[in-house]
Amino acid sequence: MKTKKxxxxxxxxxxxxxxxxxxxxxxxxxxxPGIKIGVANLxxxxxxxxxxxxxxxxxxxxRIILVGFTFGNLSTMMxxxxxxxxxxxxxxxxKKLKFFSMVGVSIIGGISHNIGQxxxxxxxxxxxxxxxxxxxxxxxxxxxxxxxxxxxxxxEKRLKKFLVNx
Amino acid sequence: MIKKNDFILIGIILAIVLLIWSLSFFKINWPMNxxxxxxxxxxxxxxxxxxxxxxDLDKDTTxxxxxxxxxxxxxxxxxxxxxxxxxxxPDKICVHQKEIHYDHETIVCLPNKxxxxxxxxxxxxxxxxxx
Lengths: 166, 131
Fold this sequence. Notes:
The complex is a heterodimer of chains A (166) and B (131). Helices cover 80% and strands 0% of the residues of chain A. With 166 residues, chain A is mainly α. Chain A has one domain: Arp2/3 complex 21 kDa subunit ARPC3 (Orthogonal Bundle). With 131 residues, chain B is α+β, with helices and mostly antiparallel strands. Helices cover 24% and strands 33% of the residues of chain B. Chain B has helices at 4-25, 93-96, 126-130; strands at 42-47, 50-56, 61-66, 72-78, 81-87, 106-109, 114-119. In chain B, the strands form 2 sheets. Chain B has a 4-stranded antiparallel beta sheet. In chain B, strands 3-4-5 form a 3-stranded antiparallel beta sheet. In chain B, a hairpin with a 5-residue loop joins strand 3 and strand 4. Chain B is elongated, with a radius of gyration of 18 Å. Classes of the chains: A mainly alpha (166), B alpha+beta (131).
């Protein structure tokens, strides 16, 4: 069982890593650091629902550090850490609270990712008026979160019988 | 699969966004200077966290901040108000932002890392001068 655990972690990390890379290849033509489709969040969602909170949390930290050192620099890593950790913690919390389905949890993840990055931008640029970007980021976070949540639900349904054996 | 609560969540988020947008539509500069309006006397230009230049608000001028790789932000100072009139960034959020005049008001261009901030505010003296 231990070997299977290691293999599954490796698989999820590489999936998240590759999705982050693909995402960086196709930047959305809106140069706000908060706006991303957040495809890598899909893998975090699968880990959260298929395996558990610890796995999802470890997975997001490893992904952020790997992607930060490979494709970014320290400042982009600060943004992704703020966004990634906040969204991961809130998704774990809201999954436990059972208010929402996967879609709602994913929306929480999407918008908190953007809010985390805005807070980091306020700290780095030392100006509070970046908060003017908040409404636009809330909208994009909701749209991408909904899409990721629906896709994640479909994938989880198909993976269920493999995940049970884990 | 999607629960009713999910739609409530989406609704709440949309309501917050609409509220913020309608506040700015009615020229309420959210969230800054909602309560205090002190007139500023200078504008501080910051590029990438470094102070770039400080200009007086009482001299009308048009100023361009040029950076390497073709990035630029052009703003004008007129009648004590600072307004971004052109920029190289694709989103143009800084250009669409309202003109600034009161202490601590800012215009930010995130892609170019440019921040204009009104500083050195004094208590509003317009009324006493008019008297």
